[in-house]
Amino acid sequence: MALTWAGFDRLVHEGDTRGVFTMLLEADEAQRRAFGAELESRIRSAAPAGRGWGRQEPGWSPASYALAVIACAPTAARAAALLSRREMRQWHTIHVDRFLELARARQLPWVGELGVRLAQRSRPGDIRLVTEWEFLAALFDEGKADPPVTEAVVASWLRQMHTGRPAALLRNLRASPFLDRLLPGVFAIDGLGAHVRLTPWDGEPASVFSVAVARLCAEGRLDRTSILAATVDRLLRGDRPAALRPFARLHEELAPAPSEMVPLATSYLRLLAAAPSPVAGLAQRASRSAWESGELEWERVLEVSGEVLARPEKALVKAQLSWLDRVARRDPAAAGDVVAVVEAASESPVLDIRELARAVAERHRPAPTAASPALRAPVAGEAQPASSATPLVSDVHRSSPAAVIPAAIGSAAELAEEFVALLRERTAVRWERVMAALVGLPAEGLGEALEPVLNRNDRTGRTRFTALDAAIRALDAAIRALDAAIRARAGLPFDPHEQQRLHDVVQHPRSLVHTPADLLDLRLAEIAVRVTRSPIPELLATPTHLTGSLDAGVLIDRLTRLEAAGAEPWPLDFQQALLRVAVPQPERPAEDAGILARADALTGPHGRRLAAWLRAGGLPQPISIRFEQRHPLSPDRRVVVNLQPGPGDLSGLGDLTGLSGLSGRPTFGGLGGLGRAGDFPEDGDRGDPEVPGGLEDLDLEDAVVSLSRAAEPDYQGWLTYRPDVLAMVLPHHREAAAAWALPDLAALADQDDRDASLLPLLADAGGPPGPAVALAVAYGLGARHAADRVAAIDAFLALTERPGAVTVAAGDVLPSTGPSAAGFAAAVGAELGDLCSDGTVKLARVVEALTDAQVAGATGAVWQLLTAALPRLLPAGPRGLPDMLQLATLTVTAGAAETGGGATAADIPGLEELARRSGGSRLLREARRLVAALGKT
């Protein structure tokens, strides 16, 4: 059969690989060389097919073309280049016997070289199938070549060694001609440990890598000394824990004798100091075995012990202390050095370790007078001298005046820059500066500066939304409204549908907001609609401080200028200004008397309302009602807070109700957002577009303090969480802001969400903290992510430096515990006791956060929290309770003066009963330590 492309293509199309093989085998070398001239161009023009299970182009067969390559390629380099192409890398389809028979027919001397080149060209993951490895192995064997030790080759060989059952791994390793060549690569190449089997899936221990290699060492097939050295070296060089685990198990299977470990003593000691916990434990046992046999000097043990005692693993540290105790017992000359090393552990926050370190030091101390003060300090909580007591928490976090907001934007060019920055990072401060500039800057020049920026950052392409677009709507609504406001102010054209939509928003606002943070969208809509129809020289509500607070004198000045200009304030802008204005405080009567006198001098209706507002003390603080949400199909629960408007005398505003439509007490609600289809009335009921009203119908003052949650928790809420915007809307009502944000803050702990940035903002805000703030901090302390717990700690430290009762509705607060339960720290503790008792919040996370707070100096606050939380936790016994009891003991020890001085175990109901139980569990030991510490304060 002549070797022609027509005949070749016909056979390939028919799938006749045997016919292809016969045609290539019967051809002479001259025919093959002529055929090969076009072969390379054909392969290079083939469509890539990916892996073997991908679709092939008609008339394309990698297996047939591979036979043509070995039959026609002039050199190993050319053959390897062709076979390594992506469209040819389906080596599992190659008939290996036919491939080799063609090579033998040509008497090729480079078959082994071809295998080496193919292996070297392979990347990790390329040789995934066992049959692909078998193809390469056949080339190595045929050409008597050694495979290159690369990650791809070793991983593929290792995968093939695990093929078959039962106990196939041991048999395959024993029979492999490449064992001596490739097995060292398993130890030398990072990450290959993840490719070996850890458990005997077929019930035969020999199918496990560590067992199989150890048996080969026992049989003499492998050199035991070399394998042990390679194992320790692999552990010493480190890797991911999963990749190191097989080598740690291999070390256990080898069970080296002390004499075998002596040459590796330095490596073991290095592992003991710095390796991952399981490997360090292995090294500790090996090193101690070598020392006990007399093969390792005690000086070398002491050299590394300081680093070991500083490790966080309690079991490892305890074992090291026990070892040091044995060292001092066996060699009295080492006793002084042992005591010096052990002193570091005497400061451990883990009381078990501290007690053990003290016992070892006292046992081997040469003379009692040499004891250091740290070691003489009682472990269980002996009171410290007054001079050494930890400072009060108020000395750690002192309040400072709120920072002022950056200077106003002064030009159209600066406004354009700030707009671009706002698109990248949408902070509340940037929103306020941009809105203030839109209203306050002259209209001249705005179009030239802003039109290019608007066109490059168009957000107005979507004017209709479906139910699935909720997230997009929530993210872009404010930007869309801002775009419209800029175009209106700059005299630029914009979509008339958008103009009408914003008019509808202003006309019918109540159903279009869900939280106070959504008021930003309404204020932007108000600017877009009113900036050209009823212009004012400046916004009233622009805050003067970063907290969102507005200085009363500044607001009076702004309102005076509006009255002088004959302009009437915009409704929502005025109401937001009222929420932000700093009302008179009892501690500054002289200063506030002047403010009230200036307000009384205002003559317009808005001025009179401002004066009455300031004299009434502003919006009364809301009544918080603790509310438990439960899921009907699971035991999951979430504790939130409902709000009711607080009692207050606003009768002085009665003659002004027509000014803002004070009618009833509306709340935020509805299912829509800005621009949701179906939220607006029909066209015939839209009202006069030239006389925007509507916003007067939104009683903002009552709406922000009226909240009623559903009976079931919502774990799939789509509302956008804007913490800094929310905090700026309510700068003097932190309790209301916390209540609105509680579902998002609860999700930090029960859904492992992120972003606790509201918590420090709540700490900087004004108004008394109540159940909502206490719950917010409690959820933050139990957050999944460390950065969120840090934010909660900051808020806790700041709020506990300002003593004061927690404002609650009668009957809606958790029962108090002890004389300090009225404080904020005790309120947080009561919530944590409830939430952690059933695992709603993980206690271990809370203990970690509280430990950081205690170390930061908040000893008294942490103690108040613990005394409120423990009575609820002791009966439930949740995971992490021993750690919380240990923290309580450390807190008592660190600052007896701050923890009440005369505090006793009776102040924590259930503690003494727990301590009196028989047994030696850690929970009981920690309870007894706390009782002992309280007895000595």
From TrEMBL:
InterPro entries xref list: DUF6493 (IPR045472), DUF7824 (IPR056726)
Region annotated Disordered, chain positions: 364-393
Signal peptide range: none
Residues in DUF7824 domain copies: 421-588
Residues covered by the DUF6493 domain: 79-311
Domain of life of the source: Bacteria
Classification via Pfam families: DUF6493 (PF20103), DUF7824 (PF25148)
Name recorded for this polypeptide: Secreted protein
Organism: Actinoplanes missouriensis (strain ATCC 14538 / DSM 43046 / CBS 188.64 / JCM 3121 / NBRC 102363 / NCIMB 12654 / NRRL B-3342 / UNCC 431)
Upper taxonomic lineage: Bacteria, Bacillati, Actinomycetota, Actinomycetes, Micromonosporales
